[in-house]
Write a structure and sequence with these properties.
Blueprint lengths: L3 H10 L2 H7 L5 E2 L11 E15 L2 E16 L7 H13 L4 E8 L6 E12 L6
Parallel strand pairs: 1-2
Antiparallel strand pairs: 2-3, 3-5, 4-5
Length: 129
């Protein structure tokens, strides 16, 4: 399997535009915490990671689906989920990921906005270089 999660986390945390908008690299995590206490927050999780294209009983590529949750407070001082999503979509589009979902979902916490982004792509190990 191609180690995509670490690569994607490095892609997000290495974006000066995203880190500047969020305020700190600490606002980007590679898991989904049980409670969101830091705003804004970007959470990266694997949605699906499957082997593809076999040769000599070994997979040659992976089919990768990832989910990125974006949280922010409804506050004029914080960036919107849309502004954060636009940077993330640009970063992943540059790596040939297609965005299959981009929308706000209801969040039971008052004053919190939650946007879900889902991306997919087939990857070769050489794509991570």
């Amino acid at each position: 399997m191609v180690p995509t999660k670490a690569w994607l986390n490095t892609l997000l945390t290495g974006s000066s535009a995203l880190v500047a908008l969020l305020g700190s690299v600490a606002h980007i995590v590679d898991t989904h915490p049980s409670a969101i206490t830091l705003f804004p927050m970007v959470c990266l999780t694997d949605d699906n990671h499957a082997d593809m294209e076999y040769a000599d009983n070994k997979p040659l590529m992976d089919s990768v689906s990832i989910k990125i949750d974006v949280y922010t407070k409804i506050d004029g001082a914080l960036p919107t989920t849309t502004a954060i999503a636009q940077i993330i979509i640009g970063l992943l589009a540059d790596k040939f990921f297609s965005c299959g979902q981009n929308g706000e979902v209801p969040d039971p916490t008052d004053g919190v906005r939650h946007r879900v982004l889902k991306f997919s792509r087939e990857l070769l190990p050489s794509d991570l270089l």
